[in-house]
Write a structure and sequence with these properties.
Layout: E1 14-18, H1 23-34, E2 38-43, E3 54-58, H2 64-71, E4 76-79, H3 87-108, E5 111-116, H4 139-156, E6 162-166, E7 169-171, H5 179-189, E8 194-197, E9 203-204, E10 206-208, H6 209-221, E11 229-231, E12 238-239, H7 240-251, E13 257-260, H8 262-269, H9 273-278, H10 294-300, H11 307-316, H12 320-326
Parallel strand pairs: 1-2, 1-4, 2-3, 4-5, 5-6, 6-11, 7-10, 8-13
Antiparallel strand pairs: 9-12
Helix pairs in contact: 1-6, 2-3, 3-4, 5-7, 7-11
Length: 327
């Protein structure tokens, strides 16, 4: 595959982020801002801006007229929205959000890049690649499969130029709502025992948020990447035990942890609706979960951040205050 080494620099290009304010959207915004791009952030809640190249526009992604108004003048639209982690909300809202984004892309002629996860693949025996067939084994996976198929069908039909960027589970989230962030890194920053969902002997991949921002940025800069699926650069999978040992070494604590099985997760979920919503995804944590991003890495000549490097940065920045407070 040819390398996409020619980065298009058009300072007049309007980059619109639907669902601004989330972890990936923020990382993408930083990449665009660092390259002097013009950015329009779109969300329901106000977002403060400090640059003349960045503006905010209020819009509900369920309201087509508002989304269309917010996206006027866009050359590239990024759909990075995160809905409440509830399958009923997903069933009701994701099809509407996706259809609105597709219709806006048709109306404006803008390229559309959708930031997605891997739920649609279901339980995979081996590495997940861009060619892995959709075989969801959860309600949320069925929803993601349906909206991803809808988007790529429009692209294949020539109605829009669109692509899908996928990531594994996150780490490095500013809100600490990622599994690894919340249950391992934040715990060790506070000198507490870590927790691990599932079997710590199984392999798991984690995508570093800054790498995801850079990856989506590169797709936005290269129209040659349109109308296909991309797995953004993610370091090779490690076992849960290896992750715990790396984190403990960096945070200078003993690698103590508690493994949480499915029954324990379900029990916690009786008191927390979000936790209960994760029970159907437990298969991702008691089987190997291996995310292959070699296609993207070869095409764009990039390498993912090593886990040790990413965790070290987080220990010095994102979790520094927590660590100090616990001492």
């Amino acid at each position: 595959m040819a390398l996409y080494l020619c980065i298009i620099q058009n300072r007049k290009t309007m980059h619109t982020i639907l669902g601004a304010g989330g972890a990936v959207a923020n990382a993408l915004t930083r990449e665009l801002a660092n390259n002097n791009e013009t950015i329009r952030m779109v969300s329901r809640k106000p977002i403060a801006t400090t640059s003349k190249n960045i503006s905010w526009k209020k819009a509900d992604l369920l309201n087509y007229a508002e989304v269309l108004e917010a996206a006027k003048g866009s050359k590239v639209i990024y759909l990075t929205a995160g809905l409440v982690y509830d399958k009923n909300i997903w069933q009701a809202q994701w099809p509407v959000v996706m259809q609105n984004a597709i219709n806006v892309a048709k109306e404006t002629g803008a390229r559309l890049i959708f930031f997605d996860n891997v739920y649609m693949y279901g339980l995979v025996n081996g590495p997940m690649t861009e060619n892995t067939p959709y075989n969801p084994c959860s309600a949320k996976g069925e929803i993601r499969a349906a909206i991803a198929t809808k988007l790529m069908d429009e692209a294949k039909a020539g109605n829009i130029n669109a692509s899908i960027a996928r990531a594994a589970d996150f780490y490095g989230t500013e809100t600490m709502n990622g599994f690894f962030d919340m249950m391992v890194l934040d715990k060790y920053a506070k000198k507490q025992k870590a927790q691990w969902v599932g079997d710590p002997k199984k392999l798991h991949s984690f995508s570093y948020i800054p790498d995801m921002g850079k990856g989506v940025y590169l797709l936005g800069q290269n129209p040659q990447s349109d109308n296909q699926v991309w797995h953004l650069s993610t370091a090779p999978a490690l076992t849960g035990k290896q992750f715990i040992e790396i984190a403990a070494r960096i945070y200078k604590v003993e690698p103590k942890y508690m493994a949480i099985n499915k029954f324990m997760l379900w029990s916690f979920g009786l008191f927390n609706k979000v936790v209960m919503s994760t029970v159907e995804m437990y298969y991702q944590y008691n089987h190997d979960y291996v995310f292959d991003s070699s296609k993207f890495e070869k095409a764009f000549n990039v390498k993912p951040t090593a886990y040790e490097d990413g965790i070290k940065v987080l220990s010095e920045t994102l979790y520094k205050s927590e660590s100090r407070e616990s001492q």
